[in-house]
Amino acid sequence: MEEVLRETLEIQNWGYNLLTLSFIATVFFTVLQAWGLWKQNRKIRRERSGTSVSVISFGYFGSYFFALLAYGVHLKSIAIVFNGLLGCLYIATLVELWKRKSFTRAEKILLSIFPFMILLMVATTHKDALLSLLLGGILISATREVWELRREKSAGAIEPRRILVFMATGVFWFLYALKIRNPVLAVFHPVFFVILTYHLILWYKKSKESGT
């Protein structure tokens, strides 16, 4: 185990530099995201409802983060592997949703397809290109979550702190993308931030309308 850690990017480049600072920041924001997801899970359990929480979105994100974990193993990056472990919390929340709401046929089919992105990440030699493609899927998934909230008459079981945490994390990754001049992340995160902002505003309006 010690030998494996020595071979990671973070240990090999440890010091006062961008990689080390971004590693520390990534760990911090991953813990923050985990807290937001835990709050979401607890709210579903407390209210015994999964209303307005998108099954498709949580299923996609869960598989995406496990694919990210595989990507991190390939790069020998502790930070990316640690971030990929968020997939466990998405799957745990998906289990809670299974208990609280009926999954449609389309949702069941998509949930059976999403895990293939993990196998594809392990098998492909074009991991960077695949990751960029999967990021585009996140935008579609996040839009689906907004659509589900619009369809419902109340804010349901959505936890706003989860949205706020991911907005804050998105700002960090956007600034980081500018620093390392990564065009994919630099374009992705502002769009993701806009979707999350609209999601939060819509949640607030629905909360006011339903008096919750």
Question: SSE layout and pairings?
Answer:
Layout: H1 2-6, H2 9-12, H3 18-47, H4 55-75, H5 78-84, H6 86-100, H7 105-113, H8 116-123, H9 127-151, H10 160-180, H11 183-210
Helix pairs in contact: 3-5, 3-6, 3-10, 4-5, 4-6, 4-8, 4-9, 8-9, 9-11, 10-11
Q: Can you tell me about this structure?
A:
- The chain is mostly helical and 212 residues long.
- It has one domain (2-210).
- Helices cover 82% and strands 0% of the residues.
- The chain has eleven helices and no strands.
- Helix 4 runs parallel beside helix 8.
- The longest helix has 30 residues, at 18-47.
- The mean pLDDT is 90.
Structural class: mainly alpha
Indicate how many domains the architecture comprises.
Answer: 1
Uncertain stretches:
none
| Morphology | globular
For the sheet with most strands, the description reads:
none
What do the pLDDT scores average to?
Answer: 90
In short:
The chain has 212 residues and is mostly helical.
Which terms would index this structure?
212 residues; mainly alpha; 11 helices; 0% strand; globular
